[in-house]
Amino acid sequence: MLTLKQIREDSAQLIERLAVKGFDATEIVALVCELDDKRKSVQSLLDNVLAEQNALAKEIGALYAAGKPAEAEEAKTRSTGLKEQAKFLEEELRGVTEKLHEEIVKLPNIPSPNVPTGRTAEDNEIIKNFLVELNLPENPLPHWELAKQYDIIDFELGVKLTGAGFPVYKGYGAALQRALISFFIERNVVAGYNEVAPPLMVNEASAFATGQLPDKEGQMYHVTEDNFYLIPTAEVPVTNIYRDTILNEDEFPIRMTAYTPCFRREAGSYGKDVRGLNRLHQFDKVEIVRIEHPERSYDALHAMVEHVESLITALGLPYRIVKLCGGDMSFTSALTYDFEVYSAGQDRWLEVSSVSNFESFQANRLKLRYRGHDKKTHLCHTLNGSALALPRIMAALLENNQTSHGINIPGALQLYTGFASIDG
Description:
The chain is α+β, with helices and mostly antiparallel strands and about 425 residues long. About 40% of the residues lie in helices and about 20% in strands.
């Protein structure tokens, strides 16, 4: 959530920057400024009424003490009128403040000056392209055919048990899934990230704090009776660990990692681009989260990008790193790098990680601050990234390591799987 200072300091520049995301903020910014002026005006009137009321209370006491009951009663009548006026102003102030908040949360985060201009994924900037020579059989198969051939992922059984987008991993497939989770978590811990195991459901306050509400209600599964939400990513509960917290400067950096299943409705998803593991309603992901001093958050972002790159490199996958343009960025992000791996069986690039700096946008919603050397509190910066999302990594591993007689397992994973290949 943007602060009033960010909105009011240079409204014209804010509108210009948000236009990079394809968002026209003109009307909302004007309304926010109008509501803020009204809030200040009502607050000033209320303060004056309360001050007059306090002064009158002292006057009434003095009048009674001076033996002037008639004048004291007259003052009490005026005090009653002031109380009614104060009550009316308090209600008006509450209404204006709520409306002001409703408008502010409609504004997305301000994109970093480094964000490329553009409207769609076609306008994203490829900043690194790392290709690996693949020794594949002629006409390599997509992962859903390999999964069926070697009986390691059962999509039809998932439909029977739940519905489309809920696959069942079996045998070697389940072992490979478990191996990837262990591999990612251990690499993250070695890199200095503290492992946590958070709940898989969060309350409304947590979903709001990281920006899922009110922006993404349609993408989350909602447990209506309890008003809980199944998490779309571990970012939500992990970042909320520090909601309503004031840190000391010497506590930076805070680094956390978590493995969780993730749940996304992905309403309207269909067609060949979402076949197999390409887009699921339930999937496993290992996440990294950082809470940083504002002066060091972009150094942290680049460190996270390097770390995710090291994980993909260890798996021997062809990949590219993409800087997202304004129109392809999330509501909450200031700058995002996507990692895509090449999928030989589908002959396409698959996104497997997004690494983002949210600057103070989430922290303002979280009320996550630090106390500086000036003894004042300031908003922290928050960052997160997938390290990594498993379904498309699994798809690329199966497709890129297939042979005429089976599927080879990358050496880095063999310690975790206990086997070097999947074969019939």
